[in-house]
């Protein structure tokens, strides 16, 4: 069995060093190098190929009440990873296996592979490894879950998706199109909007940067949703969500997946909260990890679509662990285009 | 068969004369007198005993999009009534019957009694006539529906009710207590709060007037809800609702029944909108008239409780049709105590 000495002696890690006051900054992170420990029974050493960067990580950086435990200070930042087994003390995992897990912001992880949900082997025969962090991973399942379980779109209805070019939004829209809906995206900038309509196949996409005031945004939305809005998949929150509320039809369903607009603590001015009552809206937040029972069904549909070339996705790839903090802050500001990844090794 | 001449020649009516700009005012209404027409086949003449005043009427006064048609200008204001049949050209209704309907802000109404849901006969043997506009009427069913269909409280959970001393809120709390919940009301003023705890039997009641800033309100709420909030029955909206969001437990359910705070067009500053995601809240608006299928079940439970003296309610009664506009504006400002009625005749 290989030992750490013949593979690599050092694991590079990014540690949460301090909590943000207001906006997150690169100063909240610090790089650390650590020797890779010997494997105990049942443990697996994984060399990470890709690290996933996701908006939920911003919430974990705060000390306050959130849906999950806060990320501990002085510890490796949490994060999804796809990697290759370098050494194994576990019968189910072999050296060379491609594995998906929660390895965190580091080049390697030592995983207790028996712990449920920690590590699963995936096939890269028809699906690229990186897709298991995107369309066929947590973001894809998030899209599937919010759309099918909360928005519950019916053929002919109109579904609006915010952050439409992102890892989640892009999947939401394509799944809704496949269900016969009119799909309208909201994204930042001409290039992203063109991608959303021309490549992803949404019926329309509204550039929120070109419609910076809510009146202008409402006008653009009205033109794009002549029959109103029956479902909203909300990744952003704040004034954009508020504006969409004003276009809802009676009994519209709103899946709240992300509220990036509020992660830095700014209040949401709700001009259209009365729509909750006027249109008997259902607004529901959800966390993809709480319905593990639905993952197999979701991953089945998503994997089949990606393998068959019927689900398009795009990636923004930063290179090297050191680039992760900057790439993460860019993600929070919408600088990425599609799924934001960090490539850690080949 | 009696004719109009032997009963009364004049029907007094209150007409919506103009739409409010900002807050509603008595100037939006005008009094009109009209001869009572002869009854056609299938029609019934009702002399109103009580007119119900309800917050939803404020929404109808606006021209804008609402869940129902706007109240037409120049027409009698809409409103629930309980009255006595004075003359009848319909086989199912006899002179002297007590009937509940939507007679509007007028002393009499001529009703096409065959139209579904327009008029139903009720018994005053064990339930006072006025209760059919409150605890055993639309407000009671509203309470029952929001609580049982959206809040879905389980024994041991904590339910918060805003406008707790009102016609709806008082019933919500008593029904939730009967289901084994800890029930906390929010109401305006010491007298109302004392009524909510001492007479209605809520576990606690918070005086929002004595806790005018959200920090103080949050502190009082925290003390009253040591285990957090699992269900919220929301009659008010605005900063009070926002503050309660900050005390929610994961998977709390919020029934949005009324948003009085927004009826005059002020935006809702949502400081705690992020809780929708953090706690995977379900927030749902509803309109009691859209689930007529549930009314029999609700009225059955409510009627039994009132007849058995197990459901307490309180009424504020203004006298004479002319007093309706002032009483209605008082209701919007929380000046009433319990169900606001206008007594029109004995």
Blueprint (SSEs and pairs):
2 copies of one chain form a homodimer.
Chain A: H1 4-7, E1 10-16, E2 29-35, E3 43-52, H2 56-61, E4 81-88, E5 98-101, E6 108-112, E7 119-121, H3 138-151, E8 158-162, H4 167-178, E9 182-187, H5 190-199, E10 204-207, H6 214-224, E11 229-234, H7 238-245, E12 248-256, E13 268-270, H8 275-278, E14 282-285, H9 295-307, E15 315-319, H10 324-332, E16 339-343
Parallel strand pairs in A: 8-9, 8-11, 9-10, 11-12, 12-14, 15-16
Antiparallel strand pairs in A: 1-2, 3-4, 3-6, 3-16, 4-5, 5-7
In short:
The structure is a homodimer of 346-residue chains. Chain A has 346 residues and is α/β, with parallel strands linked by helices. Chain A contains 10 helices and 16 strands.
Explained architecture:
2 copies of one chain form a homodimer. By secondary structure, chain A is α/β, with parallel strands linked by helices. Chain A folds into 2 domains: 4-132 and 314-343, Medium-chain alcohol dehydrogenases, catalytic domain (Quinone Oxidoreductase, Chain A, domain 1, Alpha-Beta Complex); 138-289, 3-Layer(aba) Sandwich (Rossmann fold), CATH 3.40.50. Chain A is built from 10 helices and 16 strands. In chain A, the strands form 3 sheets. In chain A, strands 3, 4, 5, 6, 7, 15 and 16 form a 7-stranded mixed β-sheet that branches. A 6-stranded parallel β-sheet of chain A has the order 10-9-8-11-12-14, sandwiched between helices. In chain A, strand 9, helix 5 and strand 10 (204-207) form a beta-alpha-beta unit. The longest helix of chain A has 14 residues, at 138-151. The radius of gyration of chain A is 21 Å and the shape is globular. Chain A starts with a helix and ends with a strand. Mean pLDDT of chain A is 92; it is low at 1-6. Chain A binds chain B through residues 59, 65-67, 237, 250, 256-259, 262-263, 267-271, 273-274, 276-287, 290, and chain B through 59, 65-67, 237, 250, 256-259, 262-263, 267-271, 273-274, 276-287, 290. Strand 14 (282-285) of chain A pairs antiparallel with strand 14 (282-285) of chain B, so a sheet runs across the interface.
